[in-house]
Specification:
By secondary structure, the chain is an alpha/beta fold. The protein is built from eight helices and twelve strands.
Protein backbone atom coordinates (compact mmCIF):
# COMPACT_ATOMS: atom_id res chain seq x y z
CA UNK A 1 0.00 0.00 0.00
CA UNK A 2 1.31 3.45 -0.94
CA UNK A 3 2.17 5.67 2.03
CA UNK A 4 1.08 9.31 1.88
CA UNK A 5 3.93 11.79 1.42
CA UNK A 6 4.19 15.40 2.62
CA UNK A 7 6.71 18.16 2.00
CA UNK A 8 8.07 20.30 4.85
CA UNK A 9 10.46 23.23 4.53
CA UNK A 10 12.46 21.96 7.51
CA UNK A 11 12.52 18.61 9.26
CA UNK A 12 14.01 18.68 12.75
CA UNK A 13 13.21 15.90 15.21
CA UNK A 14 13.68 16.46 18.93
CA UNK A 15 15.99 14.29 21.03
CA UNK A 16 13.28 11.64 21.30
CA UNK A 17 12.75 11.55 17.54
CA UNK A 18 9.44 13.43 17.75
CA UNK A 19 8.24 16.12 15.33
CA UNK A 20 5.04 18.18 15.44
CA UNK A 21 3.53 18.53 11.98
CA UNK A 22 2.18 21.86 10.69
CA UNK A 23 -1.53 22.58 11.09
CA UNK A 24 -2.30 22.14 7.39
CA UNK A 25 -0.75 18.69 7.15
CA UNK A 26 -2.23 17.68 10.50
CA UNK A 27 -5.70 18.71 9.33
CA UNK A 28 -5.32 16.67 6.15
CA UNK A 29 -4.15 13.60 8.06
CA UNK A 30 -6.94 13.81 10.63
CA UNK A 31 -9.95 15.02 8.68
CA UNK A 32 -9.24 14.03 5.05
CA UNK A 33 -7.20 10.83 5.29
CA UNK A 34 -8.71 9.77 8.63
CA UNK A 35 -5.31 8.69 9.96
CA UNK A 36 -4.95 7.46 13.51
CA UNK A 37 -2.18 6.85 16.03
CA UNK A 38 0.38 4.31 14.74
CA UNK A 39 -0.44 5.03 11.08
CA UNK A 40 2.68 5.68 9.00
CA UNK A 41 3.40 8.56 6.61
CA UNK A 42 6.45 9.91 4.80
CA UNK A 43 7.85 13.44 5.03
CA UNK A 44 10.62 15.03 2.93
CA UNK A 45 12.31 18.42 2.67
CA UNK A 46 13.99 18.45 -0.75
CA UNK A 47 17.37 17.35 0.61
CA UNK A 48 17.32 14.06 -1.28
CA UNK A 49 16.10 12.08 1.72
CA UNK A 50 12.67 11.13 2.97
CA UNK A 51 11.69 10.10 6.48
CA UNK A 52 9.25 7.34 7.36
CA UNK A 53 7.41 8.29 10.54
CA UNK A 54 4.41 7.11 12.51
CA UNK A 55 1.73 9.15 14.23
CA UNK A 56 2.14 8.94 17.99
CA UNK A 57 -0.20 11.66 19.21
CA UNK A 58 -3.07 13.88 18.08
CA UNK A 59 -3.61 16.85 20.39
CA UNK A 60 -5.14 20.30 19.78
CA UNK A 61 -5.56 19.50 16.09
CA UNK A 62 -1.78 18.85 15.73
CA UNK A 63 -0.25 15.49 14.83
CA UNK A 64 3.02 14.46 16.41
CA UNK A 65 5.07 11.85 14.58
CA UNK A 66 8.04 9.69 15.58
CA UNK A 67 11.06 8.98 13.38
CA UNK A 68 11.26 5.42 12.04
CA UNK A 69 13.60 5.40 9.05
CA UNK A 70 15.66 7.75 6.85
CA UNK A 71 15.70 6.81 3.17
CA UNK A 72 17.86 8.19 0.37
CA UNK A 73 15.91 8.94 -2.80
CA UNK A 74 17.67 8.73 -6.15
CA UNK A 75 14.79 10.17 -8.18
CA UNK A 76 16.35 13.38 -9.48
CA UNK A 77 17.03 13.65 -13.20
CA UNK A 78 20.59 14.43 -14.20
CA UNK A 79 19.20 16.59 -16.98
CA UNK A 80 17.73 19.78 -15.55
CA UNK A 81 14.88 21.06 -17.71
CA UNK A 82 13.53 24.54 -17.08
CA UNK A 83 10.17 25.26 -18.69
CA UNK A 84 9.67 28.88 -19.70
CA UNK A 85 5.91 29.00 -20.13
CA UNK A 86 3.61 31.80 -21.20
CA UNK A 87 0.75 32.66 -18.87
CA UNK A 88 -2.10 30.75 -20.49
CA UNK A 89 -5.63 30.06 -19.20
CA UNK A 90 -5.48 29.02 -15.57
CA UNK A 91 -6.84 25.48 -15.86
CA UNK A 92 -4.46 24.66 -18.71
CA UNK A 93 -1.55 26.33 -16.94
CA UNK A 94 -2.20 24.21 -13.87
CA UNK A 95 -2.30 21.01 -15.93
CA UNK A 96 1.09 21.93 -17.40
CA UNK A 97 2.56 22.55 -13.94
CA UNK A 98 1.20 19.31 -12.52
CA UNK A 99 2.18 16.99 -15.36
CA UNK A 100 5.58 18.56 -15.99
CA UNK A 101 6.37 18.23 -12.30
CA UNK A 102 5.46 14.55 -12.43
CA UNK A 103 7.72 14.11 -15.46
CA UNK A 104 10.71 15.59 -13.60
CA UNK A 105 11.03 19.24 -14.63
CA UNK A 106 13.63 21.15 -12.63
CA UNK A 107 12.06 24.63 -12.67
CA UNK A 108 9.27 26.77 -14.11
CA UNK A 109 9.64 30.36 -15.33
CA UNK A 110 6.28 31.89 -16.30
CA UNK A 111 6.38 34.92 -18.59
CA UNK A 112 4.14 37.55 -20.15
CA UNK A 113 4.14 37.42 -23.94
CA UNK A 114 2.20 39.59 -26.39
CA UNK A 115 -0.61 37.01 -26.59
CA UNK A 116 -0.64 35.88 -22.94
CA UNK A 117 -3.97 35.69 -21.15
CA UNK A 118 -2.44 38.04 -18.55
CA UNK A 119 -0.54 41.17 -19.52
CA UNK A 120 2.32 42.78 -17.65
CA UNK A 121 1.21 46.33 -18.43
CA UNK A 122 -2.43 45.87 -17.37
CA UNK A 123 -2.65 45.94 -13.62
CA UNK A 124 -6.18 44.57 -13.56
CA UNK A 125 -5.19 41.39 -15.36
CA UNK A 126 -1.74 40.81 -13.88
CA UNK A 127 -1.15 37.64 -11.89
CA UNK A 128 -1.84 38.08 -8.18
CA UNK A 129 -0.19 36.55 -5.14
CA UNK A 130 -3.11 34.18 -4.60
CA UNK A 131 -2.65 32.57 -8.02
CA UNK A 132 1.10 32.24 -7.54
CA UNK A 133 0.55 30.63 -4.13
CA UNK A 134 -1.96 28.22 -5.67
CA UNK A 135 0.44 27.30 -8.49
CA UNK A 136 3.25 26.60 -6.03
CA UNK A 137 0.87 24.42 -4.04
CA UNK A 138 -0.01 22.42 -7.17
CA UNK A 139 3.69 21.83 -7.84
CA UNK A 140 4.25 20.73 -4.25
CA UNK A 141 1.28 18.35 -4.27
CA UNK A 142 2.40 16.83 -7.58
CA UNK A 143 5.89 16.28 -6.13
CA UNK A 144 4.43 14.61 -3.05
CA UNK A 145 2.22 12.37 -5.16
CA UNK A 146 4.82 11.20 -7.68
CA UNK A 147 7.60 10.40 -5.20
CA UNK A 148 10.07 13.17 -6.04
CA UNK A 149 12.74 14.07 -3.52
CA UNK A 150 12.62 17.76 -4.45
CA UNK A 151 10.18 20.53 -5.35
CA UNK A 152 10.64 22.29 -8.71
CA UNK A 153 11.44 25.97 -8.36
CA UNK A 154 8.70 28.38 -9.50
CA UNK A 155 9.76 31.92 -10.40
CA UNK A 156 7.61 35.00 -10.24
CA UNK A 157 6.31 35.92 -13.73
CA UNK A 158 8.64 38.02 -15.84
CA UNK A 159 8.49 39.71 -19.23
CA UNK A 160 9.25 37.71 -22.37
CA UNK A 161 12.29 39.89 -23.02
CA UNK A 162 13.68 39.16 -19.56
CA UNK A 163 12.97 35.45 -20.03
CA UNK A 164 15.03 35.39 -23.23
CA UNK A 165 17.92 37.13 -21.51
CA UNK A 166 17.72 34.68 -18.63
CA UNK A 167 17.90 31.68 -20.99
CA UNK A 168 20.50 32.86 -23.48
CA UNK A 169 23.53 31.32 -21.74
CA UNK A 170 22.14 27.76 -21.71
CA UNK A 171 20.96 25.39 -24.43
CA UNK A 172 17.48 26.71 -25.20
CA UNK A 173 14.68 25.86 -27.62
CA UNK A 174 11.42 27.62 -28.37
CA UNK A 175 8.46 25.57 -29.57
CA UNK A 176 6.97 27.29 -32.63
CA UNK A 177 4.29 25.88 -34.89
CA UNK A 178 5.52 27.85 -37.91
CA UNK A 179 9.08 26.53 -37.83
CA UNK A 180 9.63 24.70 -41.14
CA UNK A 181 13.32 23.76 -41.07
CA UNK A 182 14.20 22.41 -37.64
CA UNK A 183 12.17 19.50 -36.24
CA UNK A 184 12.27 18.75 -32.53
CA UNK A 185 13.08 15.09 -33.13
CA UNK A 186 16.14 16.02 -35.21
CA UNK A 187 17.46 18.08 -32.29
CA UNK A 188 16.88 15.17 -29.93
CA UNK A 189 19.09 12.86 -32.00
CA UNK A 190 22.12 15.03 -31.23
CA UNK A 191 21.06 16.17 -27.78
CA UNK A 192 23.66 14.25 -25.81
CA UNK A 193 26.48 15.80 -27.83
CA UNK A 194 24.92 19.24 -27.66
CA UNK A 195 24.62 19.10 -23.89
CA UNK A 196 28.31 18.43 -23.32
CA UNK A 197 29.73 21.53 -21.71
CA UNK A 198 26.26 22.96 -21.01
CA UNK A 199 25.96 21.58 -17.45
CA UNK A 200 23.19 19.22 -18.55
CA UNK A 201 20.74 22.11 -18.55
CA UNK A 202 17.94 22.65 -21.08
CA UNK A 203 15.47 25.49 -21.41
CA UNK A 204 12.21 24.94 -23.31
CA UNK A 205 9.96 27.89 -24.22
CA UNK A 206 6.23 27.23 -24.53
CA UNK A 207 3.99 29.92 -25.98
CA UNK A 208 0.40 31.06 -25.35
CA UNK A 209 -2.79 29.87 -27.02
CA UNK A 210 -2.22 32.19 -29.99
CA UNK A 211 1.42 31.22 -30.38
CA UNK A 212 4.48 33.45 -30.49
CA UNK A 213 4.57 36.49 -32.75
CA UNK A 214 7.23 36.70 -35.47
CA UNK A 215 8.92 39.52 -33.53
CA UNK A 216 9.16 37.31 -30.46
CA UNK A 217 10.74 34.53 -32.50
CA UNK A 218 13.25 37.02 -33.91
CA UNK A 219 14.13 38.18 -30.40
CA UNK A 220 14.63 34.58 -29.27
CA UNK A 221 16.87 33.88 -32.24
CA UNK A 222 18.99 36.95 -31.44
CA UNK A 223 19.57 35.45 -27.96
CA UNK A 224 20.62 32.07 -29.36
CA UNK A 225 17.29 30.38 -28.61
CA UNK A 226 16.51 28.06 -31.51
CA UNK A 227 12.94 27.63 -32.74
CA UNK A 228 11.84 24.02 -33.31
CA UNK A 229 8.68 22.32 -34.53
CA UNK A 230 6.93 19.45 -32.73
CA UNK A 231 5.28 18.33 -35.96
CA UNK A 232 2.47 19.20 -38.33
CA UNK A 233 -0.33 19.24 -35.75
CA UNK A 234 -1.16 22.36 -33.74
CA UNK A 235 -0.91 21.43 -30.06
CA UNK A 236 -2.32 23.25 -27.08
CA UNK A 237 0.32 24.90 -24.93
CA UNK A 238 0.07 22.40 -22.08
CA UNK A 239 0.15 19.47 -24.51
CA UNK A 240 3.22 20.88 -26.26
CA UNK A 241 5.05 21.24 -22.94
CA UNK A 242 4.23 17.70 -21.82
CA UNK A 243 5.12 16.22 -25.21
CA UNK A 244 8.47 18.02 -25.47
CA UNK A 245 9.58 17.13 -21.95
CA UNK A 246 8.52 13.50 -22.28
CA UNK A 247 10.54 13.16 -25.46
CA UNK A 248 13.65 14.77 -23.96
CA UNK A 249 13.68 12.43 -20.96
CA UNK A 250 12.94 9.42 -23.19
CA UNK A 251 15.83 10.28 -25.50
CA UNK A 252 18.27 10.80 -22.63
CA UNK A 253 17.18 7.89 -20.43
Amino acid sequence: MQINRFYLDRIIFDQDGILKLPLGISRQLIHVLRCQVNDQVVIFDGSGFEYKVKIVNVSNKICSVKFLEKIFLDTDNQIKITVFISLIKQNRFEVALQKCTELGVFAFVPFYSSRSIYQLDKKSSSVGDNKISRWKSIIQEASEQCGRSDIPHFSDPISYETACEKAQNSFSMILWENEEKIKFKSVLKNLKEVLKGNNDSINIFVGPEGGFSSDEIKLADSKGIKSVSLGDLILRSETAAISAISNVFYELS
